[in-house]
Design a protein that fits this description.
Layout lengths: L2 E2 L1 E4 L15 H14 L3 E5 L5 H13 L4 E5 L4 H10 L6 E8 L2 H6 L5 H16 L5 E6 L6 H14 L3 E6 L6 H14 L7 E6 L6 H10 L4 E4 L13 H10 L5 E2 L7 H12 L16 E2 L2 H9 L18 E2 L7 H10 L2 E2 L2 H17 L5 H8 L5 E2 L1
Helix pairs in contact: 1-2, 1-10, 2-3, 5-6, 6-7, 7-8, 8-9, 11-12, 13-14
The structure holds 3-methyl-2-oxobutanoic acid and zinc ion.
The site of zinc ion has 6 residues, from loops.
Length: about 375
Amino acid sequence: MARRVYIFDTTLRDGEQVPGCQLNTDEKIQVAKALEELGVDVIEAGFPISSPGDFKSVVEISKAVKEPTICALTRAKEIDIDAAVQALQFAKRKRIHTGIGSSDIHIQHKLRTTREKVIEQGVAAVKYARKFVDDVEFFCEDAGRADVVFLAQMVEAVIAAGATVVNIPDTTGFLLPWQYGERIKYLVEHVKNIDKAILSCHNHNDLGLATANAISGLVNGAAQVECTINGIGERAGNTSLEEVVMAIKAHSSMGLETKINSKKLVPISRLVEGLMHMPVQANKAIVGRNAFAHSSGIHQDGVIKNRENYEIINPEDVGADASSIVLTARSGRAALAHRLEQLGFRLGKEELDATYKRFLEMADQRKQVEDADLLELMKDNATVKE
Ligand code: KIV
Ligand code: ZN
């Protein structure tokens, strides 16, 4: 039986930190409802102490969304935890996500303290949060660059204090996939009380490896993955939800599964793109506008014969439009004949050769040849129109 992976969406917290992507409360509720329909397990709704607007959003999302757990971020400080407790008061299922730096770089140059003191502060924060909620996640910030032996001590201490989930963030997106996987494996093998909590992957995309790192963490024993729609987030972004979900689905040999309704992936991607004014690159995996578009002659010929020649995912499975054949100067006769047939023109070999020649002249002038252009091309052609 496949092992369940919990999807923790942080579009409304880590994603919303992106300059220019800020949403108002109504827009956040719209995204939260779409995330609920998508089937995510946890929605990180905000960082309540950070601003009255974020506080209000966590309150309103808690009222509007009932199925997923609603999570609020805090620093390892009682004042933050108090704000999170207040903001989560209406949530049916609630989680506090607290934590502190774990790498020596953060401990010395950001927190200006010692390893002993950060463990002390982390443990105190978890114990304090557990007075109010049963579900407490602890983040070991910059775990990607932390001394792994110290990291294991920290994880063990916060689990003993009552953490139910421990997040191992590669905050700077520094690690390579096998390094992140080894880190998770080390924790699984060396933390004595690891069976009392689950490990979570939180990967940033500074080297373009966030999804690969998250998958590596999951395969090596993590049970939760933190991700955002369209991979938005600080700097180069976070693990993209749609990528990690579809990688798990496409590779059943990993023995993992999620409860995401993949048919909702493209619709929610478009919703977030529009509300956040953050255009998705055309070649973005799964949700980019070219993700199922074929433009070279060889590929087009292959796809026309059988979609699976060049597609590993059925566009319908992610809620995308059917695969498209884009007619350009790189297209071959097969693609042209196919599109003309769809428009009602069935051409014999000689006629197709002649039309193809004229098509290439047109395609060299226009970047893309649309149906209207083809109809213009066929205007004076003595062809069989069905
Ligand atoms: O990247 C990170 O370390 C974070 C934590 C606050 C979880 O976003
Ligand atoms: Zn982050």
